[in-house]
Write a structure and sequence with these properties.
Order of helices and strands of chain A: HHEHHEEH
Oligomer: homodimer
Radius of gyration of chain A: 15 Å
Structural class of chain A: alpha+beta
Shape of chain A: globular
Strand content of chain A: 5-15%
Low-confidence stretches of chain A: none
Chain lengths: 107, 107
Amino acid sequence: MYAGRGSPGSLAPGQFERIAKALADPRRFAVLETISDAKEECPYQRLCTLFPITKATISHHLKELVSAGLVETERDGQYVHAKVIPGVLEAYTTELLRRAGRPVAQE
Amino acid sequence: MYAGRGSPGSLAPGQFERIAKALADPRRFAVLETISDAKEECPYQRLCTLFPITKATISHHLKELVSAGLVETERDGQYVHAKVIPGVLEAYTTELLRRAGRPVAQE
DNA sequence: GAATCTGTACGATGGTTTTCTAAACATCTG
DNA sequence: CAGATGTTTAGAAAACCATCGTACAGATTC
C-alpha cells in the first residue's frame, strides 16, 4: 500500500491525483472529516457506528485515504486507529492553487 | 445550469461537493489547468486541439466545470471562450482546510 | 485449542461517469 | 436561403466505483 510520502510540504508522484479522487466521494470525505475531528486518534469502530455502511466499506474508504497519504492507521492489539497525517492536505491545496489558481484580478 | 455563486469568498450549497468531483478526473483537471494558464480567455477550439478526446467530451467536461462554478463560458459569435472565475478555488481550499485540516502539530 | 471479536480481502452488483458516434443547434458567409 | 464551420445534446458502450455479503486472518478470552 504505497502512500508516497515525499519531502515535507511536497507530494509524491501521483499523490495529487489520488488525493483529488479520495476527496471526491462525499461519504469518504465525511470519514476523513471525522478522523480529523478526533482529538488524537479515531478508532475504526467509531467510524463503523457513525456511518450507515458496513465495516467492509469503511475499511475500503480507509484504505483509499491511506493510499492517498492523507491518513495513517495504527494497530493496537485487535483495534485499529486512524489519524490524519499533518501537512498533507495543506500541501495538496498549495499544489492545487499553484496549478489551477489565478492571481485574483483587481477591479 | 446552476453554478451557485454565493457571497464572495464563500461557496453555495452543494458547490463544495461539485468542485471536489470536478477536480477528481485527471483529464478534466488538465482542461481546467489549460483554461487557467490562458492569459485572458481560452478558446474552446484550443481545448479540442490540445486533448486527444472528441469535442463532445470537451463540451461535457466544460459543462461540469461550469456547473461547479469554477469556470465561466462566454459566447463570441460562433466561438466559445472559457475562463476561470477568480476566487472560487481559493474559497474551496479554505473550506477544505477548515473542514478537514488539523493545526500543524509542534514537536 | 475453541470460541469470539476485530478488521481485511474477495467477488458480485447496481449505479455513476467517461467517452464515443451521430444528430441537432447556432452562427457566419456568400 | 444554402452551405460551411463551430458547439451542444442524445443515446449507447465501456470502464469505474461504492457498497454489500461472505469468507478469511489475527488477537483475545475461556
